[in-house]
Every structure is written in C-alpha cells, then in structure tokens.
Amino acid sequence: MVAFGKKLKQRQNDEWQRYYINYKLMKKRVKQYAHQIEIGAQDRRHVLKDFSRMLDNQIEKIVLFLLEEQGRLASRIAKLGERHNALLEQPEISQISELRESYREVGQDLLKLLFFVEINAIGLRKILKKFDKRFGYRFTDYYVRTRANHPYSQLQQVFKHVGLGAVVGALSRNLHELQDRQGSYLSIYDETALPLQDPVVDAINAAVDRLTYSTNFLTFLAQHAFIMQEDLPTPTGEQPDDGRYHFMSLLLNLVNTFLYMVNTYIIVPTADDYSMSLGAAATVCGVVIGAMAVAQVFSSVYFSAWSNRSYFKPLVFSSIVLFMGNLMYAMAYDVRSIWVLLIGRLFCGLGSARAVNRRYISDCVPLKIRMQASAGFVSASALGMACGPALAGLLQTNFKIYKLTFNQDTLPGWVMAIAWLVYLVWLWISFREPAREYDDIPTAETSNAAAETVETNGLEEGLKQPLLITSEDKQGEDEDGDQEFDGSEEAAEESRQPVTSIGAAYRLLTPSVKVQLLIYFMLKYVMEILLSESSVVTTYYFGWSTSSVAIFLACLGLTVLPVNILVGSYISNMFEDRQILLASEILVCLGILLSFHIIIPYTVVQYVCSGLILFVFAEVLEGVNLSLLSRVMSSRLSRGTYNGGLLSTEAGTLARVIADATITLAGFLGESRLLNITLLPSLVICIGSIVATCCTYNSLY
Hints:
about 75% helix; SPX domain-containing protein; MFS; 2 domains; 29 helices; SPX_dom; two-stranded antiparallel ribbon; mainly alpha; transmembrane helix; MFS_trans_sf; Growth Hormone, Chain: A; Methane Monooxygenase Hydroxylase, Chain G, domain 1
C-alpha cells in the first residue's frame, strides 16, 4: 500500500522539489490541529485561519514558480521564432530539422510543467478533502468560494493553468508550420480540424485535457460509462500494452451491452397489454418491467466479483440466463401464467453483465483508446435504448406455429432469445480470455506464510532496535518519513488497495459523493417513471397504439447522441461541469412540473414536450454527474469488486426498482390518478437533489 504522499514524492521533478506543494507538512499540520482542538489548546476559528494562510502560501509558491517557468518557455520560443523567420528567407533542410527538434525539446519541458501543475492540483484537492473529513467542516466550500471567485485569484492559476494556453498554442503553431505540408499554405488557425502529427503535441494536448477536464464529444460521451482512472498521473504518459487487449473481445462486450439494453426496453410498449392478456391489471407492467431491475441489484455484485477472475465465463453465463429468461417470457402467453412472465424477466435481470463490460474496458483496453471504448459503451447503450421500442413497433403480427403463439406480446421474447443464442455462439468462437496475473492474488496459505514471516522479521528487527528513540532519530523520522501518520491514517484513507465490502465502500463516501449518487438515483428514477408508464398513460389519455408508443420511445432514445454532441462539443467548453449539473437539475424539475395533469385537458403536445425536456436533460445530467462523481470519489473505489461503477449501478438500479414499484402501487388508485401520483415522488426527490447540490456546490471542482 503506497500512500499518496510517497507517490507524490516519487514522481516529483528533483530540480523543482522545493516548489511542489508540501503535502506531508500540511498533512502533519492537520494532525496537529486535531490534537490541539481535542485538548482545547486551539479554537476552531484559529485553526481555519491558520490553515487558510498555509494554503495561500503553498499556492502562491506554486503560482510564482509557474509564472517564472512560463516566462522561460516563452523566451525560448521567441528565440526559436527568430531562427524560424530567418529560415523562411533561406530554407535549409538540416536547419529545419534541427529547429524542429529544438521546438520538441521545449515541448518536453512544457510537458514537465503541465505535469507539475496537475500533480499540485491533485495534492490541493486531497489535502482539502482530508481536512474536511478529519474535522467534519465544509472548509473546501469556503476556501474555493472565497479564493476562486476573487479578481486576484491564484487558485485559478493552478486549476485553470492560466497563461499556459498561449505557450501551447505558440509551440503547436510553429511545429505545424515546420511540417512538410506538401504545398499546403493552411495554418492551424485556418482549419481547426487540421491534424498535427507530432507525438510531442499529442502528449501536450492529452496533458492539457487532463488538467482542464475539457470535454469534447468523445470525452463527454465516455463520462456516461463511469470508468474511473488513476488519480495521480504518470509523466511518461501511455503505459506499455501488456497484450491483454483483443479487438473482437471488446466488440463482443459492446454487443452484449447493446443487446441487453434492447432486451430491457423492447417490452415497454407492450408490457401493459401482455399483463392484461394474462388477467392482470395494466399497471402490473411496472412489476414486469421492474423485475429485471430487481434481479440486476444482485447480479451486479456477483458479476463484479466474478470479473476479478474471468471475463469469458460471466459472459457465457449471462448469455445462457438471458436466453432462458426470454424463452420463459415468450412462453408465458401460452401457459397463461403471469408468474412465468415475471420469472422470465427476473432471469433476464440475473444475466446483466454490464459490470463485466465496464470492467473489461477498464482493465484490458489500452489507455490510448480507452476513451473511444468508453464512448462506444455509452453509444451501444443509447442505440439499444432506441432500437428496443422501435423493434417492438415492428413486431405487430399474430400467428401460431404448432401450439406456440407469436404476436406483439410474445415476439419480443422470441426475438431476443434467438439474438442471445446467436451471440452465445459468436462469443464461444471469437472471445479471447485475457491473461490474468494470478500471482498477485494471495491464497490463504501464502497470506498466512507472509504474516508469519512479517511477524518473525518484525520481532528480530525489534530486538536490534534501541528501546528509546533519540531526539535526532525522531526528528529525522518526522522530516523524512512521517511513518506513524503515513502508516495508519494515510494507508487506510488513500491506499490504492481496493475495498472489500459494501460497508468499507460506504465509509469512503464523502458528502459530495453522496450527493452525486443521490442525483444519479433521481435521474434514473425520473427516467424510469417516464419510460415505464408511457404505454399506460398514452393509452389512457390519447388512445395511442403500440406502434405510436414505440415510435415515441424510439425518438426519445435517438436524442441521446445528438444531445451529447451538442453538450460535449460546445456547452461543456463554455460552462463548468457543476454549472451544467445544477442547470440540468432545474430543467429536469421543470419537465416534471410540466408533466402534471392539473385542471386543463391533458394534450399530446404537453406530454411530448414535457417528456422530451425531462428525458433530454436527464441524459445531460447523467454525463456531468458521472464526470463529477469520478473526481470526488476515493481512488480506492476505482478497482476491485466494490468499485465506484458498482455503487453507481446499484444506485441507478435501485431507483428503477422503486420507480416500477411506484407505478404498480399507484395503479391500485386508478389509471386516472397514475400520472400525478408517480410524478409527485419524482418532484420531491428532484427538489431534494437541487438543494443538496447547492449545499455542496463549491466542493465540485
């Protein structure tokens, strides 16, 4: 277990060592504050003032050095620019190559500076989080609010790297002009999409993207996948590929994601009709749809644990269970049993392998294409959400083969059963299990042996040590090791060791993380209410057919990618994520309010417009929410069985279960009251999430 402070020290540039944030000193000071408050030696106001002053000094040290280095880089680029201008008059190939290499050397130094800023920004976030957690304050809110919004803010220099953009731009432009453009006179300013094939510039752009959290369409889309990265970057960039990546295996994971989402939503337009044909009420469709989510609550855990050992076997098991579940769903009509229908949907939920799909991308896909793979995961989900209802709308037929009925109610089950059978064959033929490093997984015997060895060595070393530590030894330990604090609190809080239980994972959740999980719960609840009751509501108010409901739901699903393009390419570059988060919550709340049926007759325009507002901004909210969640969540939740992805999945799945149960329970009061009764909890949860967001707003950065 390597503490953050030790990793920070290992990855520092030795020449700049005294300009980094003194994380160990600040961590030690936090411990001293806690002791002083405990014995009554200091009051809280003095602690806050003293810690604020220390933070200001640390940030000022970082910023002044940053400005100094920026000036040096700018001066070097200016001198190279003079040589560049001279070469334009008398070009020589050898000198052009030499000049290009000189620019690349500046680029390498710029990379070091970007890494310097990033590692200090992470250190600041961590020490603020440590202070809040240790004292139970909302000090981060106060500090960020008072510093970041001040006209003389130095905090913005660290988090927004003000001024570095000009250096990056100058370097990129000059390297671009020194390329062999084959007669082209275009500048990088003439065509923004003009590619610059230079590894140094690519590395710089990647570092800038990490530092600013800038989000183009691809990165914004990938945020929905919630695949957490390591919190502390490495200056070397891309890690070597260990050969675990296999394109066909990745494709099979994405197809699994697509088919599962189709399987989830293909029954929505006909679930109420199917329930009534088996003698149940139309609102039992909530239970039918929600049964899949109920089973997914449990399947997510065992699939997440199973993926620690294998990817192939869970996917095979998932395909078999989904095949059986869809078969039972289709045959429930002929056996005239609502219970067979529900058991079939439960089996489908037990086959949810989305945790495996996420885990494969996180563990086996190389870093350089992981963003594309994550975006592919989300795109497959969105496409499946749209194709499910659309496919249901096409299955409007009725015939029998022997004693088996094929109609709009049963065909979704038959079609998906065949699809999963074909997928299973493809999976068996084409999937390649990545190599596993089982040596790193301790067995009971090796763990016991290791424990005995440590105990024996510790006893022998203890006999060699003096009984009392001298003042010089103690001082050296405080200055260099801080072993007592590093070994206990730091190892427990910031270790990279994954958590081993839900309880341990919950203890790592800060107020900011809990609020983001609440928001995720809210948006999934709201979307499930809208989608699951759409068939019942539209049939009652407007007399829509199954095809009309299918078209409406398919159109909603098709908005996902265009909206993400708009937000990811434009809006996210104009506003902060937390601003988009709060605005999206308010607009979701507006969509809920517009959906209520109060006095005036309920119209198609009102329902469609309110549903569109609600769904679109819930989708926007999901991407921003998961992006912020990945920043504020502990790095210990980035891997292992009980990871951040599992927690968010469980929150979303639980929301769907409760939403579907709400629809069924509200149905007992009559279809005329169904809409308003189901929207009321949505409104309450949404308002609660807005209030919670406002309370933690300044900690979302």
